[in-house]
Design brief:
By secondary structure, the protein is an alpha+beta fold. The chain is built from 8 helices and 6 strands; from the N terminus they run H-H-H-H-H-H-H-E-E-H-E-E-E-E. It has a 6-stranded mixed sheet, covered by helices on one side.
Amino acid sequence: MAFEPPVSEGRYDLLESCTFAFLLALEALTPQQRAVLLLREVFDYSVAETAAALDLSMANVKTTHHRARRAMAAYDAHRRPPTRELQEATRQALSRLMGALLQGDSGTIEAVLAPDVTTLTDGAGEFHAARKPLVGRQRVALFYRRLSEQRAPDQRVAVSMLNGLPALVCNFGTLKTGYARRGVIRVDVGEDGLVHCVHAVLTTRKLTAVRFP
């Protein structure tokens, strides 16, 4: 018997489908699973419409959909659509984080972070970046404190809505060779208001649509 999710329960809306967390979760799917999931869950296609659009049988659509939803289980377990409340909580967390970084005190930075916070730096080999994720409040605080100490006098930072949530759009100014001149820093905020993940995107090809200050 093929699995058929309820019509209204568990669907992803268009705004959520653009969030970083959702896009990251989609990377675990095959191209066919992504296509079926998006058509069924975001664009509300019926099984028959999805089958016609992708040139698949209806049975194949149902099986692929089931497998895609199963692969999205980890995302669904911690799912937080970008509501206005989450957008405001994210904006406040970014403001606190920036203020802490400007103060340059590890203890002040730690107060903004969850105990199990993780930071990821996406330099894709193009720029100097942390090669492995850093985990833990003290390690992440120390990492960003040291980075803040290297900031250039002409650095400019603005808050902009990206992928449904506020993020820091950074022009890092004049830095040493090998360091990114521009980047985006985004955070995942928990229900406790603390930052649970900091993700810095530095790769040029991923920032072509971003307007920098």
